[in-house]
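Hi support team,

I've been running sequence recovery on a batch of backbones for a student project. Most finish fine, but this one hangs at about 90% for roughly twenty minutes before it completes. I'm not sure whether the input is malformed or the queue is just slow. I've pasted the structure tokens below so you can try to reproduce it. Let me know if you need the job ID as well.

Thanks,
M.K.
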């Protein structure tokens, strides 16, 4: 039985990590663009409300919700990539490195399963509302592309978790 897949130098995991990094950097820029669009839209709406001739921007609520979903879905993988998520290590930090790697590998494996299921359910839900033809309340924009985008963001998070899982397994195998 060969364990070449767990080697980091020039191996499959290193290539997988480069792909995950590229995809997550691209998605983070899309999410950042959505954040900027939300900020501009909200500011324009506030200014429009204060000027009697202009009035509020129609559909601001719909657009902020849709863009917020893009920001959330596309930031998941990048946050994991940067290790910027919350981890409680009060007990684990006192353990041996190999034991920590075992716990990390179990945690990453469970997280992969969880986010694959979340992605699958998002895609299933998006398909159902696409078939029904559900639209946003004010602008009458379809919701399903946003939900597919969230499913895609969860799959990209799974890719990062897979890289972390394989790295943890490599650490477990060290003697």
């Amino acid at each position: 039985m060969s364990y070449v897949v767990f080697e980091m130098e020039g191996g499959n995991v290193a290539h997988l990590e480069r792909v995950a990094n590229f995809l997550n950097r691209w998605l983070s820029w899309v999410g950042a663009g959505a954040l900027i669009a939300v900020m501009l839209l909200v500011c324009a709406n506030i200014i429009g409300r204060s000027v009697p001739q202009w009035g509020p921007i129609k559909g601001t609520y719909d657009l902020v919700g849709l863009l917020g979903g893009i920001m959330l879905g596309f930031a998941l993988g990048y946050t994991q990539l940067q290790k910027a998520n919350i981890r409680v290590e009060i007990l684990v930090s006192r353990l041996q490195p190999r034991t920590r790697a075992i716990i990390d590998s179990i945690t990453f494996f469970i997280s992969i399963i969880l986010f694959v299921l979340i992605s699958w359910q998002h895609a299933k839900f998006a398909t159902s509302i696409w078939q029904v033809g559900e639209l946003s309340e004010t602008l009458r924009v379809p919701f399903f592309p946003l939900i597919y985008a969230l499913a895609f963001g969860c799959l990209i998070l799974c890719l990062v978790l897979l890289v972390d899982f394989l790295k943890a397994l490599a650490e477990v195998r060290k003697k």
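--
Follow-up from support: It reproduced on our side and the slowdown came from queue contention, not your input. Residues 1-6 have pLDDT under 50 and may be disordered. No action needed from you.
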